[in-house]
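Title: Prediction job returns without error message
Component: structure pipeline
Severity: low
Priority: P3
Assignee: unassigned

Description:
Job completed but the reporter wants confirmation the result is attached to the right record. Sequence as submitted:
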Amino acid sequence: MIKQAIIPLAGLGTRLLPLTSVFAKELLPINGRPGIEYILDECIEAGIKEIVFIISTKKLMIKKYFYSDRFYKSIIKKKKDPRLINEYKKILKYKSKIKFVFQNIPKGTGDAVLKTQKYIKNKYFLMLLPDDLIIKKNCSKSMIKVHKKYQASVMASMKVKKNNVSRWGIYKINKKLDKRNYVIDGVVEKPSVKKAPSNNAVIGRYILPRTIFKKIKSLKPAKGKEIHITDAIQLLINDKEKFIAHNFKGKYLDCGTMRGYINSSKEIGKI
């Protein structure tokens, strides 16, 4: 079973400036809650027991958010507000599952994954990218079911507009397994429209094998001097590791751009 998850949080969030000049984007409120809490709830509801946050020293406020015990205790002692008591209990629940590692130099998602190697003990683990919210259905939970059924690595996917493929990792289908699941032949990070193998995009949920760490170590920085997780995935596919693209149910929200961030609050507010 998948019991461990990792969440890369070291990015600077430049697409959400000026808000992120003083505030970690993952703590920005989405319909009254920090965005990271939606990701944590998805993990916990999917049965995850341990979550590794990859942060940088510039984003220590994320760690502080989960370690504000003295502040909560002093306020609760004075006010005895039931809402604050419930908030503190929620924070304690999250904190009991979280560990922290650091990625102080931004070298891409592949490098962020590598920072977690010492904590990952099981054969497979879950990775969630916090810019991508999937509401109404628990995507991680459904992916774990797919993994259990096919004993394979899994990536969340959806179709995107052809003129937008350069924003995503794009994959090529090998064969159809069932209505929502496909074995993939390969994946390319942010290809041009001309070079894209399809308009099937990888969304920020992955079930990855522990063997990916070795592949990441073998990579040299690519475009933007970053190590892309998709390049490591391609190396595993070349070695006959089965990767399944899972067309998830639920509604996708992009919280990584200003327009998407504003829209996410509106959409979650409708639920």
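Comment from assignee: result matches the submitted record. The chain has one domain: 4-269.
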